[in-house]
Amino acid sequence: MFVSDERNSNNLKSIEKSLMMVCIDDPLPTSFNCKAPRDDIPVEGRGLVAGDRDETNMMHQMLHGGGSSANSANRWFDVTIQLIISSDGACGLCYEHSTAEGVAVVQLVEDVLKQVDSQPDGGSNVSNNHPQLSPAVRLEWSLDQNLQRTILIEDLDLFVYRYNGYGKDFIKSCRVSPDAYIQLALQLTYFRLYRQLTATYESASTRRFLLGRVDCIRSATVEVLDWVVAMSQDESGVESEDNNQQSSKKVTFSLYTDEKKQELFDLAIKKQTEIMVENIMGEGIDIHLLGLREMAKESREPTPEIFQDDVYKLANHFALSTSQDGYGASYNPHTSSIVFCLSALNSCEHTSTWKFSHTLEESLNAMQKLLDVRKGNK
């Protein structure tokens, strides 16, 4: 019905041929700010940037626009790159991943920021007219009420969390890869919440190979499990009753010394780094198995048993990255802070981005304390 209208059809063709979109927005209301109790979030962790809007609010704007009552009608999510500019100065980018890798787009944004910073007065003297660009033309649409709905946006539990305890400089001073370190922090956080590891999907670029795209860096290893168990041992306790006292008391104990935890941490980091290098060098397992699975489909032969096995299905249920009953957890380590963008679905009863961020902070603090002990002994 929508494309049967000639005007709609012509508009769609124009949009689909476009290189990118520029979306000029109004700010989202502060009701999109972090839903956690404000007193539970340190002021420095709220990331207030544009007026009373926090970074979680602005991430909602960049990700989906805020629903049909806000800016979502000002998006076209099939276009690879959408540049989003809000009237209060907030700006960002929404990126559709299927046609290209994130590395290329990140490089584009970094180059743009460098050019803006290099302009006098922040680029205020740049001409508003470009001789090679055609004048903007408004696209008019034929829409009915059934096409103007908000479907999934309200189910999004989104929280931008800025950890200010330390950043990549501290991690590098411990001679550890920041990426491997943060992956272990995410597993430790998940284990403390759910008492198990989970399959994670971290993209590893394979663009050095012809037609290469990405493979999957997994962090749920035996080495990581041994370490998170050791790190979480202090959280368990036993109830003991002293006959000389009137009431019982809880005695907290640990079976692991700091030296043992450090040893297990080193083994976990080593394994994580090995997996990362193997994937970057084209020796990962996920894309190889995916290729075999798709070849089996094209051959029209019965699906091989391995792809129907429960273990294979479990291994591809990524509760940290993609699954509907899990979390999205992207991150950007800065010099003295780490920014996390955490997402989940409100309809999933056992997930909460606020609880995850709170436990993540505890995990990062515990890891710093562990490594500070080692640095102090040297």
Automatic annotation (TrEMBL):
SUPFAM superfamilies (UniProt xref): CoA-dependent acyltransferases
EC number in record: 2.3.1.6
Membrane-crossing residue ranges in chain numbering: none
Keywords: Acyltransferase, Neurotransmitter biosynthesis, Transferase
Recorded coiled-coil stretches: none
Superkingdom of the organism of origin: Eukaryota
InterPro entries registered for this protein in UniProt: Carn_acyl_trans (IPR000542), CAT-like_dom_sf (IPR023213), Cho/carn_acyl_trans (IPR039551), Cho/carn_acyl_trans_2 (IPR042231)
Keyword Repressor: no
Single GO cellular component term: neuron projection
GO process annotations (BP): acetylcholine biosynthetic process; neuromuscular synaptic transmission
MF terms in GO: choline O-acetyltransferase activity
A Pfam match: Carn_acyltransf
Protein's UniProt keywords contain Transferase: yes
Protein name (database record): Choline O-acetyltransferase
Family indicated by similarity: Belongs to the carnitine/choline acetyltransferase family.
Active site location: 97 (proton acceptor)
Domain Choline/carnitine acyltransferase stretches: 5-362
